[in-house]
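Contributing new records

If you add data, match the layout below exactly. Sequence lines come first and carry their own label; structure lines follow with theirs. Keep one chain per record. Anything else will be rejected by the validation script.
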Amino acid sequence: MAHSNKKNQSKAKDDSPKKKGYIYILAALVIGLLAITLAAIFFGDSKQAPNIGELPNYTEIRGKYEAKGLKYEKQPHLGSPSAKIKIIEFADFKCPSCKDWEAANMDRFKKEYIDTGKVELYFINFAFIDRDSIMAASAGEAIAAQSNDKFWEFKSKLFENQGDETEIWATQEFLMDFVKRNIDGIDYNRFVKDLKDQAYMLPVKEDFKTAAYYGVNGTPQFMIDGKLLESSDYEELATAIDAKLGSAQ
């Protein structure tokens, strides 16, 4: 009987309020850490998870295409068709260097070489940075299918509104909202349908494969009458154009 009382006393000591308080604090800490972890996982995934499914990669884009041949007639163009020199710009809408080149040099290039009738500029997608690069390129193709002039407006304004290179930002939702707010004079409903139907994904893939076939390995890169330049420096580009013009004369 005495032995039994000692056990009961010991149990009472173990169940003291002080010990119960420690248990409650420990449990609260564990639950709090678990909640923080789950929240981090949820919000971290939710930032990208809704977008990934709608974004294609090149292996998912099916259809026949030809990598060989620059196919000028298929590309957006700027300048006189009678210009003696054809320049191709290879670019990715997510590329920060492309945005910087556009901001620093495009107006000057247009004034010195395009408006003067010396060159005709063409644009070919080299969408390589991420899956939403392909989506942005397909939006550009959809705009170009409606209006060549509106494509160049789209190009300029999209670079101005470029997101972080390391984040998924050029989603269907972003591009539809962007075009609605920034590009007038097109059939917006047609654009939305083309984007959702992925109507111009194959031309984007063809652009990518064509660029790779001719040795493009980054952006921006430029090609003069079929010859790829190693540098995108404006002065080097201008020098190469002037040399070409001089030899043509």
